[in-house]
Amino acid sequence: MIEIEGLSVSYRSGKKEEQALSGVSLSLPSGQITGLVGESGSGKTTLVMAILGLLPPEARVAGRILVDGVDVVGMAENERDRFRWRRVALVPQGSQNAFNPVLSIGSQVAEPLRVHRGLGRREAERRARMLLDEVGLGSKAAERFPHELSGGQRQRAALAMALSCDPAFLLADEPTTALDVLIQAEIADLLKRAVRERKMGMALVTHDLPLASGLCETICVLDGGRLVETILAKDLARGAKHPRTRALVAALLEMEGNLS
Ligand SMILES: Nc1ncnc2c1ncn2[C@@H]1O[C@H](COP(=O)(O)OP(=O)(O)O)[C@@H](O)[C@H]1O
Ligand SMILES: [Mg+2]
Predict the structure, then answer these.
(1) Domain of 199?
(2) For residue 25, with 0-12 CB atoms within 10 Å meaning exposed, 13-18 middle and 19 or more buried, which class applies?
(3) Which of 229, 193, 195 is nearest to 209 (CA)?
(4) Cα 100 to averaged position of ligand 2 atoms, centre (Å)
(5) Calpha distance 130→193 (Å, rounded)
(6) Is the CB of 18 under 6 A from ligand 1?
């Protein structure tokens, strides 16, 4: 369970200051998928990186972020390492391209197990093969190199890496962006299954409301760094109050209309 209370983040460069988040409070419960939805620039990635303590040095953070009841804002790096990967893991935005081109997929998925779980190379790589199997790539994918995988396959490998240390909570930042529509649906199914089978919580960060409404119980809508609405996915069509949510819903309904 992650609880965010009055979180504000600004980026300072020279005299300019960019307010990326303003007083955001929300909770991300265990065991379910919560959507963080908003247009590009609304502050989604900033929120995710704040939870993990991975904001760049020019970022100023105020407010509280409770992970299992412990405030992680301002926590020392070595303390944060106790919960990164093991409690909360990230599938980063653009993760299809995040692999080192000269290392095998297996050695890269094994890396967090060696660093954060202290496993030896053989055991870490054995587990990496199991993880690659779990995400539908098959254990043989371990020997392949990033350029030998398609975008969807690389996204699966990124998920395998995020799952490596058995996190209780997954932060998935735009996990289907830049993939073909059919592949997006496959990745969505995979995420849903991983959350169910591993009894994890997940924050699904996306600008794609149809995706979020298909996967999430609750959807939090960000607009210009503010949380403007928290709504159950099932109430989206009728219950949306904020104009930003309504605009997103109108686009969704129009899309469904075009399909039927
Ligand atoms: N390192 C940074 N320095 C300055 N401004 C930034 C930085 N990262 C993000 N921003 C600004 O913060 C706002 C929110 O960005 P971001 O969290 O990436 O939004 P999203 O993920 O919703 O697209 C944007 O206006 C963006 O330009
Ligand atoms: Mg982003």
Answers:
(1) 2-259
(2) middle
(3) 229
(4) 21
(5) 16
(6) yes
| d(C-alpha 216, C-alpha 157), whole Å | 22
Q: Which ligand is nearest to the CA of 177?
A: 2
Predicted pLDDT at 259: 62
The number of domains in the chain is 1
Determine whether the shortest distance from the Cβ of 226 to ligand 1 is under 6 A.
no
- CB of 43 closer than 6 A to ligand 1? yes
Report CA(252)–ligand 1 centroid distance (Å). 25
The per-residue pLDDT for range 183-224, each reduced to its tens digit, is: 999 999 999 999 999 999 999 999 999 899 999 999 999 999
Output the domain CATH number for residue 138: 3.40.50.300
pLDDT digits (tens, 9 = 90+) for 14-34: 889 999 999 999 999 999 999
The ligand minimizing its distance to the Cα of 19 is: 1
